[in-house]
Amino acid sequence: GRSVHQIQSGQVIVDLQSVCKELVENSIDAGATSIEVRFKNNGLDTIEVQDNGGGIAPADYDTIALKHYTSKLSTYDDLSSLKTFGFRGEALSSLCALSKFHIVTARASDGPKGTKLDFEQSGKLKGTSVVAARQGTIVVVETLFYNLPVRRKELEKNIKREYNKVLALLNAYACISVGVKFSVTNLMPKGKKTIAFSTNANPSTRGNISNVYGAKTIAALIPLDLDFRMDPSNRPGATQSAKNSSPQEDSGSRKVRVVGHISRPVVGEGRQTPDRQMFFVNSRPCNLPQVAKAFNEVYKSYNITQSPFIFADIQLDTEAYDVNVSPDKRTIMLHDQTALLERVKESLAELFAGHDQ
Ligand code: ADP
Ligand code: MG
């Protein structure tokens, strides 16, 4: 039967996309400036993520894949000012439960040698061996869901769509990660290795988008830069208590910036750029259907029917949203969302009005 550990793991790792999300975020958290994602057979056979980050300390080998182990959170207070992606220590432990999983890791002081770590399904360290390695960490996920036949079948059936979903997410990480070189490849059985895309360690998101979508795409985009403040006392439902709170709190309107690159508000422009829309909150790729809708509504008011290219990073206080609402952390709850979206639409319309068409 399925263990509780397997069932809970299946809520963090729901598909190919969540595997890649967790591993790439771990690499970014480890300070990597180079991240290579290698699929075999669209990820059905293996998913490997290699980085050149700080590596794993020998003292952590035993605990790294145990449930709720994390090296990233030292006090509860850290939660609100969290700078790292990870903080719950569930990804590696879940991958142990749901795949044939191992890690190779090497720290700067290890020279040309690294350590291969093998784990039991429970996440307990099974054994270590010395292997040749470059500085950084390689995480290898083999035969995802091998022990959950229904999920595995589902994955095999939908692999084309799953693989495209993964690429879209990796595109988003590659475009937002300034100074990080990305490469994504896929090796089909008996086929040749194809490069899905790659970026250089560009100093700007502009350079990243150019690498992923081409120089023509970036040339057709205009800079997005919205800047406004949100008054917390406007929040529906936050009435008396907010108004009666201390003066510092009351005057504490929140600064919001929305930065990125978007299609011009010009009819026919959509044909110049790929149909892609990427949204981020504080540089974290996330699903924001309501934000997407707000952007698209403004474009529609310019009679633009083709889907515009949108790359938008919403930068705001960490207290203004909640990440910790779904196990996969992709669903973000923006507080004051209705008011925020109104301000986004207003400022976007202003930006367009000021734009020389
Ligand atoms: P979390 O990211 O929430 O801490 P994970 O299960 O994703 O939990 O990872 C557990 C721990 O493993 C991390 O806290 C980190 O110490 C270590 N780790 C995972 N991936 C890497 C990596 N690529 N490089 C260095 N350390 C890593
Ligand atoms: Mg993590």
Structure commentary:
The chain has helices spanning 4-12, 16-29, 91-98, 149-157, 159-176, 205-213, 215-219, 240-243, 247-250, 289-300, 337-354; strands spanning 34-40, 46-51, 100-106, 113-119, 125-132, 136-142, 181-187, 193-198, 221-230, 254-263, 277-281, 284-285, 310-315, 321-322, 333-334. With 357 residues, it is an alpha+beta fold. The protein has 2 domains: 4-205, Heat Shock Protein 90 (2-Layer Sandwich); 220-354, Ribosomal Protein S5, domain 2. The strands form 3 sheets. An 8-stranded mixed sheet has the order 5-4-3-6-2-1-7-8, covered by helices on one side. A 5-stranded mixed sheet has the order 9-10-13-11-12, sandwiched between helices. Helix 10 runs parallel beside helix 11 (337-354). The radius of gyration is 22 Å and the shape is globular. Bound molecules: adenosine-5'-diphosphate and magnesium ion (MG). Residues 22, 26-27, 30, 51, 53-56, 60, 64, 69-72, 86-93, 137 line the site of adenosine-5'-diphosphate. This is DNA mismatch repair protein-like protein pms1.
Largest sheet composition: 8 strands, mixed
- Percent of sequence in beta strands: 25-35%
Number of helices, counting only DSSP H or I runs of 4 residues or more: 11
User: Based on helices, strands and strand pairing, what is the structural class?
Assistant: alpha+beta
Q: Which compounds are bound in this model?
A: adenosine-5'-diphosphate, magnesium ion
Compute the number of structural domains.
2
- What is the CATH topology classification name of the largest domain? Heat Shock Protein 90
